[in-house]
Amino acid sequence: MDDEPRDYNAALKVVRNRTAKQPAARAWIRENLAGTTTAVQLSVTSTRMRFPDRCWELTLNGERARPDRPTLPPDMGVVVGRLVALSRGETPPSPC
């Protein structure tokens, strides 16, 4: 891994008999993770895991992550596809 984000579809699994013992952590899991498996989008670099559809970010050792290195030039197919989807009212941008 490096500082160029790589995007994945992933699943978070909550193992019921290993759920957190702290009430606040249990409440967070109950509120944010549906059922035992939750599908998420994931963007990963060497110092950060970002969940763009959930507005969550985890960093290495809790320290500030290095800035992402953008992919240049941008993939025009992705840009055009995003603009078409927005013009149709599909998939609003992330609120993060």
Helices and strands in order:
Blueprint: E1 6-13, H1 23-32, E2 37-44, E3 48-51, E4 56-59, H2 76-87
Shape: globular
Unreliable residue runs: none
Give the overall pLDDT as a whole number.
82
Strand order of the largest sheet: 1-2-3-4
The separation of the N and C termini measures 24 Å
Order of helices and strands: EHEEEH
* Helix/strand structural class: alpha+beta
Total DSSP E strands: 4
Tell me the fraction of residues in β-strands, as a range: 25-35%
Q: What is the rounded Rg?
A: 16 Å
The DSSP helix count reads 2
Model description:
The protein has 96 residues and is an alpha+beta fold. The chain has one domain. Helices cover 23% and strands 25% of the residues. The chain contains two helices and four strands, in the order E-H-E-E-E-H. The protein has a four-stranded antiparallel sheet, with no helix packed on it. The longest helix is centred in the C-terminal third of the chain and has 12 residues. The relative contact order is 0.19.
Please tag this protein with its features.
alpha+beta; four-stranded antiparallel β-sheet; 23% helix
Quick description:
The chain is an alpha+beta fold. The chain has two helices and four strands; from the N terminus they run E-H-E-E-E-H.
